Amino acid sequence: MLVSYSSSSEDESDCFTAQRKRSNNITCQDDDDGARFCKRTKLEAVNSDKGNDQNNEVLPERKHGRLPMPDTVLHMFREEQWVDDSAKHGGRVRSFQHERGNWATYVFLPYTPDEVFLELLDEVTALAGSLDMTLTRTEEFHISLSQTVVLRHHWIQPFVESLKSSLAHIQGFPCLASRLNVYSNSEKTRTFLGLEISTGHAQLTQLTKVIDRTMEEFRLSTFYQDPSFHVSLGWCVGDCADQLRSTCLPQLQNLLDNHEEGPFQLRVPCQELRCKTGNKVFSIHLH
């Protein structure tokens, strides 16, 4: 009995033909149902995205009542309002309102008193008191060379450096004072008794002109046009200039002129200027 076998090439050809038919069938199905297939595919994609959104959905935060802020924290950074109490400094009143970062500044020539001066000063205040004029003795003796101005903190160093540079060529000189005079501040809140400088007035005037250039550089007030340089001996609260001149000045001057060691004459060696700003004091030495 004879059996007929197909060759391998024929089997491969038949297999290829069958696969092609199946492929054609699938292609035809894609062509016939393309719209429905696309819709189904899009629907599945949408459902898949919804599922992802549901999985990634952020739950609303649970609301909690806020705890009240402690008073210590609320007042931690609150700037306190400065209230000037004149009773704390002998009844003196500030020339300008205190403000954080503002530094009261002035330039002066210091005077270190000796025993003779201090003893005479005690006699002067005692005599004024007997004439119904209470004088508070000055604590620090000096000759003012500028008005009191306001400096911001970041201006202090450049201001002092400008003064030092401007005064570098100025030489020292002596000052003498022997005549009493009466002064008051611009606000008329204090009255002063001082010894007026006679010898050295021209040199002091030159100094103030140099200092005024630095004041103008920082847009600050310059010194008085016709200054009377003096060393304050004592002061009283209020505008008492007329009373001090008429009631006390002649007798106080007589006390100085008839001092037991001869007419009193104050000697101030002008070798060093000082600039006081707030609680800082800078020295500027003259040649």
Describe the protein's topology.
Layout (H helix, E strand, L loop, with lengths): L7 H25 L1 H23 L14 H4 L27 E10 L3 H16 L5 E2 L3 E4 L4 E4 L3 H11 L6 E12 L5 E10 L1 H17 L12 E8 L3 H17 L8 E5 L1 E6 L2 E6 L2
Helix pairs in contact: 4-7, 5-6
Q: Can you offer a commentary on this structure?
A:
The protein is of the alpha+beta class. 39% of the residues lie in helices and 23% in strands. Strand 5 and strand 6 form a beta hairpin. The longest helix has 25 residues, at 8-32. The N and C termini lie far apart (145 Å).
Task: Sum this structure up briefly.
It is built from seven helices and ten strands. It is α+β, with helices and mostly antiparallel strands and 287 residues long.
